Amino acid sequence: MEIRTDSGASIDYLNVTVLPLNAERWATETDHHGQTKSKPDVVSFDVLTAQGNGTTTTWYESTAQSTVSNATDRAGYVHVAARSSAVRLRFHAGADQPLGIDEITVNPRIPFAFNAVRALLVAGILAAMVLLRPGSELYRMRLFDGSRRRCAMLAVPVAVQILLCVVAWQAAGGSDSFRGIQEQSAIGGHDFDWDQYANLADALIHGHTNLSLEVPPELSALENPYDAPSRYDAISAGMTPVYWDHAYYQGKYYSYFGVIPAIIAYMPYQLITGKWLVTSIAVLVFAVIVLVAAMALMVAIARSFFPETASVGATVMMYFLFTMGTFMMCQVTGANFYSVPGLSSMMFTLIGLSLWISAKRPTRSGGVSSTKVFLGSLCMACNLGCRPQFVLACALALPLFWNEIVHKRLLFSKRGLLPTVMAIVPFFLVFLPLLAYNYARFGSFLDFGSNYNLTGFDMTNINRPLRLMLPVAMYYLIQPPSIQGMFPFFSSPGTPLDLWAPNEPAVGGVIMLMPALLAVLLVARLRKREDRTMFAVAISCLVLAAAVVFVDAEMCGYSWRYYLDFTWLLLLPLTFVVFSIDAERKDRDAVSWTPYAKCVMTFLVVSLFVAALAHFGLLFMTSRYYSVMELNPVAYFQVADWFLMM
Amino acid sequence: METKLMKHSRRSMTTVLMLVAVLLAGLLEVGVFNAPYWNTRGNVGQAATIDVGADLDPRADGTYDVTAFSGNTYLEVTSDEDIDYLLLSTDNAAQFGNETISFLLSTQQETDSGYYSGSRSIHYAPVSPTSGYVKVGGKSRIVKLLLQPKNVGDNIPITDITVNPQVPFRINSVRVALVIGLLWLAVLLRPKSELFAWRLQDGGQSQWRQWVWMAGLTMAEMLVLTAIWMFAGNGIHGYRGVTTGVGGHTVDWDQYGHLAESLLHGRAYLDIPVSDGLSQLSNPYSPATRYAAIANGDGPIYWDYAYYGGKYYSYFGVIPAVLVFVPYQLLRGRMLPTTYVVWLFAMISVIALNLLLVRVARAWFKGTASIGMTTALSLAFVLGSNMLCQMFSPNFYAVPVMASLAFSLTGLWAWLRAKRVPGRLSSGWVALGSLCIACNLGCRPQFILVALLSIPLFWTELVRDRLLLSVRGWKATLAALLPFLLVFIPILAYNQMRFGNPLAFGSQYNLTGFDATSPVISWTSLLPMVFYYLLQPLNFTGYFPFFSAEVATYRTWVPTEPLPGGILMIAPFMLAAALIMQLKRLEDRTPLALSWLALACALAVLAADGMLGGSSWRYYTDFAWLFMIPTVFVMYRIDADTQRSVRDGAVEGVESEEVSRAQVSRLTFRCFMALLVLSLIVQLLMLFMENRYYSLIDTRPQLYFIFSNMFMAF
């Protein structure tokens, strides 16, 4: 479509009104109340501007698409401002596809719109910059100064983080997304059963381990039901329903995802209310608990290792670095069953570590607190029933309690009999039933069933060459993000691999998105301390992180979801480093930092804001799985409107 | 104070580390880079039966022609053992010249009933038989090569496929040399290296050793740039004559040669025939009009020439033509190939930047500047000023910018030299400096902003000593200002003569891909443009050459070419400029003032380049080298800090301020050196980027494959 101004005035803005096309022909969804809800219509085009008029006009085309919609009142505005009095819109609709454009207004009067969310967000960022700047008062306040007031202050960042989490969750569809069964919508025509966890809980309540889902006879008849192409063929030939990412074994469907979230959340909910727990809400609840637990961990580390020096500012800053550094936003904004194991494991690990670390503070009798080690071990053991990779965290007990075991003989000694028993018993309490559950399902204690997964490749015959680990590990760690000069700013960098491997849209390596992680290289400073526990734990974490990255790269390929598996193993050493840098003051009254500490802290604060910007961009990225554009287009266009002046 | 024992232990440590580096390189060469040999030992390759896709037709010579694109453009081999490697080969490879074919790998295991495809394009060229080794693995029993030819009718130059060949053992001396070179560089630039204890000036002692080192360094840099110019840039043979360009325009690579010829004959316009079709166009500046005219047979129309009043002109800076092309043509009677001029100015730039560094060290860091830091900064300057990009394409586009770089660096060096004796100003050197700086107007005009640096540079002489703009300093003032008149007036006259306006350099009459007479770049593109120029992250892939060009996207049209990423990403050590406030601790405030002004000029040039010309890799040099000015000052300052031997006797929690400052300096030092080596690796790899203009895989595949084959193990 070509638009010209008669007066020759430059076209600065356009308002493209998009028609809501016939609901039956265009995209609709049935929401959980059974009502049809029509999705907003989105139209994309290139903008071409012109020079010259009369017979020869040269058209110059943009290299980025503009997108308009009828999602909001303002989603039709397009900023041109190319000193051109003529504009062409080149649409990307295919042949025979209806194009719903109603009107195009030139240089409309764009109404002033005060946006409370935007204003709050900008105010919040500015406030955070002021409060967390290296010269801030907060870094001069000791966390443990005898009064409870300082610790109470920590409730504020937690509240802020929870609020941001809820807002992001809501932007990505909130409780409306990922419910029920979505037929034929996965690869190859598989069905998505978004209530897999609720199904699992329901099965357990009714006393069986397999899911009460109908198994088509053709599936059992397949020679190798795990082979993807033969499944796709059978589905095309009419086999249904086959559920994506469900485990299938000897004629029954199972869930290979960790069973503990089902037991602690879904089963009680169903038993109490009689209804199935909505997974997106469960994800939010786990996420909120993780956010609280992260602060608990910060305080536990501060109290056990830096009681004299930890400042409020450093705790708050490290808290935000930690929560953002886990990249749990991926799970929160794709709040489906894939996110449940990771977030619940994160929750157990953070709580468990907090308990173990605070157990190191001697009790009144001078020993190790039995209650804390018991509860800590219980939490850590639960990892086996959530996301098994996190079970490696239990190995951290050794460096963490080395002093107590070897030097102070408070564990594994006659004196420390009770705490030792309390530390070990939970593993039996949790592991044995889980292993029995495996046996009951698949006839083997160590078979968690992930290989019986019906997915895009045959998981019972994985033989990918080890060399693929290297590029995938690089994509996880050091790949620069792909950033453009216009909303949503972030897009997926390519992740080419020479042989096929599971590969989801990339976001960029963790070190690039959160440069603060480079400060982990300063762990050597921890070696100079009298108590070498932190150094030992930090090195163990780094080794485990490398192992997890390579194992994930080899077994699971690349996905943003798996960042959660290893980032915390980098963030824990970072926490130690940050608190130790925080302690480097010019004098014992903790007035101001040494130049070195100030330099490192400045770097960390800058990195924090870089990570925050990255999170904003990644939230609205359109090329990710479960994008906001897909799940909640109204939110997408509301935020896109913030950048209309660009 | 370093004792003799400490010096000795430093030196022996360096020697040990260098020997370790050689050993490591050897181990890597034998064990890692030759891993394919170890993995395939004992293999006896099986010639495979090739299953040919329906889109391909076999030819008599054993290769295949593409007849359609229906999704069946493949060659497939099957084996009853696991396929770990394939060897693609071509009979009579010589007759296929530089043909290259790309493909994706699609594999099937015994237990699969379908294929699984990779996403990385693998390249094979008959001109490089080693490129035929393809790693597969994953217990694949069937391998399909999903070929990616560009057009129907293309040839697939593969005749045979061998399954599980034995990959030969090969010691690649270039690879070994590169690994050793990089490791030695890291050893020499480590904090404890004796290069940093070796002062540039040892008080009254003879400095012939330092001069030898600097001369050697300069020659090494010249050698590397020459090698890039010769091989990657095809400097000896490339960019001559005419080729066909965008829209059928004629691209005349000897534009400067023609300009020189015209000047010799006393003409300002070029003696290139203007086609009737062009002279009759109502708006010759509109590209659409020109494309139509060419398609109509009304050409030839020359690309990137200025056109005015029925004649062709060159809008590129005239001074290189006057100084180099004209004398050569006078003497030899033929046109000088442009690539040699780019090389010449690059060599002058390298010499000038090293002279300038030594002069800066002497002026402000006399007692402390070390050979090590000077070496590092010299490398940084070459990398930071984007010279590798210019040497990769040593055509007429690179002449003005390299000439300006040479003039600016020489001019600054001369001006600094004029200040050598405090309280005195050498008129001769001032004049030389002014002359060089003034010449920028006739090369790449953006660089003329460098003249502003004279203000902080001569502030003391101007204000305190009153050696300039005063009765006492009449000679120096004349020396400073006269050259500008001497150079500007002829250039402005030249403009007047050509276009009737002294300020019209002719770029607005350029025949190019947009109408240069009325700019169309929207101001809304400025912010994204600054981002793309400075901070756009690199585009990384897990396979050689590891980097890929970026696309700069804008909502409305902006002229843009493939970019590598922001200058602060390809030369991240320039972030040291952010520590500009460290310069406040210097006694003389001149470095601080120069640094701020240089940063301001850099941003101004960036914005101007962007709004006038869009985003292009070539333009980085215009402003990037200015970022080096604060970087040089800051790093020499850090150099001074790290040398003070401070014992690290900190008590936990309470550190003396001086100890801490030294730690900051050491941290900055380490980061700088690490980023320098990283930048070198990145920029060298970027020479092989596949989607840049005139990429090596398109223009010189044999050279490309020599390096890509080095990574066969990965």
From TrEMBL, chain B:
The chain crosses the membrane at residues 173-190, 211-232, 312-331, 338-357, 363-384, 396-416, 428-455, 476-496, 516-535, 563-581, 593-613, 619-638, 667-689. The keyword Acetylation does not apply. The keyword Transmembrane helix applies. It comes from the Bacteria. Keywords: Membrane, Transmembrane, Transmembrane helix. This is Glycosyltransferase.
